[in-house]
Write a structure and sequence with these properties.
about 375 residues; alpha+beta; Butyryl-Coa Dehydrogenase, subunit A, domain 1; Butyryl-CoA Dehydrogenase, subunit A, domain 2; Butyryl-CoA Dehydrogenase, subunit A, domain 3; 3 domains; two-stranded antiparallel ribbon; 11 helices; about 50% helix
Length: about 375
């Protein structure tokens, strides 16, 4: 597949790559992940002010640059290569897309996302791998709403300034009907009355939370999209495509580090990279990476297609990248030996991220099943 970036997209990629190489230290980011807020707000501010990547894919009407899926792919791949833990995909790609298609206060918050002053966490998933079967419900009152239910693994919630919550309007049991989006200001350390927040650090050093709503009162203007299913379906596909691009960036780095290690690691008086069986293994890793790259291109170029075509391309990519991430990550660790899983070596951190990426926005198995359903008959 031939895929060429424009001159502007190449400048975006190269500028971000230089910045991350000079300013984003893996050791420093892991230390930040394990202490305090769990991320680097100063880096986030530089993403907005110096690089402009937080507004790169947002519309010009809110101060963005008006970029699209290709720009999101370019940014996500570079962030994956540097193992960035700050919530670009969660807040800008997924939440940003939902806010752009919503109304009410969404435009104001979307502008704040672009300038780095707001981080929006999307609370949709519950117990299943699907976003379709939601049990969280909102009951209309004269001057607002009452929210009941729970959300699992809400990424970036502990550091968010706002929550976008998907809930079914009470009285409807049809899966895709009456699913609405509510936007509220949020502080995980001081949640609204009736909301319980259980925050934690994930295996790949990111922040997430489980949320429980027990008669949580929301103002009337918290409802920003009363018929949100199509927007949510698109947002999930956009998030999946971005995570796939991020995984490609991580796999590129993992493969390069593995090849370099095998060239300098000596065994039996020779570099282990000279052993044919290990050369074959690294070629297999390269082939899996190249298939993943092509699958990501297919998904990205179909994000603006009609929903059936978009979903099929994204599921094909997520399944392909999930398989590749598992293969490349596991073999990189094996070729590095026991030190591959130590905290001191970067490979172990990349392996954890590649493992987690296989389950974000639908697991590999979920997308295999969805692809089969979409291509049936």
């Amino acid at each position: 597949m031939h895929f060429n970036l424009s001159a502007e997209q190449e400048m975006l990629r190269d500028g971000l790559s230089r910045f991350l190489a000079a300013r984003y230290d893996l050791e420093g980011s892991r230390a930040a992940a394990k202490t305090g807020a769990g991320w680097q707000p100063d880096i986030w501010r530089l993403f907005a002010d110096e690089l402009g990547i937080l507004g790169a894919i947002l519309p010009e009407s809110v101060g963005g640059s008006g970029g699209g899926p290709v720009e999101a792919m370019v940014i996500a791949e570079e962030l994956g290569g540097a193992l960035v833990i700050e919530p670009f995909i969660d807040s800008v790609v997924v939440a940003g897309g939902l806010l752009q298609r919503s109304g009410g206060e969404a435009a104001t918050v979307l502008e704040q996302v672009g300038d780095g002053s707001a981080i929006v966490a999307v609370a949709v998933g519950e117990e299943s791998d699907s976003w379709e079967s939601l049990s969280t419900n909102a009951t209309r009152e004269s001057d607002g709403w009452f929210l009941n239910g729970s959300k699992s693994v809400v990424m970036s919630a502990p550091i968010a300034t706002h929550l976008l919550i998907a809930a079914r309007i009470s009285g409807s049991s049809v899966e895709h009907q009456s699913i609405s989006l509510f936007l509220i200001q949020f502080d995980a350390s001081n949640p609204p009355p009736g909301m319980t927040v259980h925050s934690y650090r994930t295996i790949d050093d990111r922040r997430a939370a489980d949320l429980v709503f027990d008669e949580v009162r929301l103002p009337a203007n918290a409802l920003v999209d009363h018929d949100a299913w199509e927007s949510l379906a698109r947002a999930r596909d956009e998030g999946a495509a971005a995570v796939c691009a991020e995984a490609v960036g991580a796999m590129r780095k993992v493969l390069a580090d593995t090849v370099a290690y095998c060239k300098q690691r000596q065994q039996f008086g020779a570099p282990i990279g000279s052993f044919q069986v290990l050369q074959h293994r690294m070629v297999d890793m390269y082939m899996e990476l190249e298939q993943a790259v092509s699958a990501v291109y297919l998904a990205v170029l179909n994000l603006d297609a009609e929903p059936h075509m978009r979903a099929r391309a994204v599921s094909a990519a997520k399944a392909t990248v999930g398989r590749a991430a598992r293969f490349v990550g596991q073999n990189a660790v094996q070729l590095h030996g026991g030190m591959g899983m130590t905290e001191e070596l970067a490979i172990g951190h990349y392996f954890k991220r590649l493992t987690a990426a296989q389950y974000e926005f639908g697991s590999t198995d979920y997308h295999r099943t969805r692809y089969a359903q979409l291509t049936r008959g």
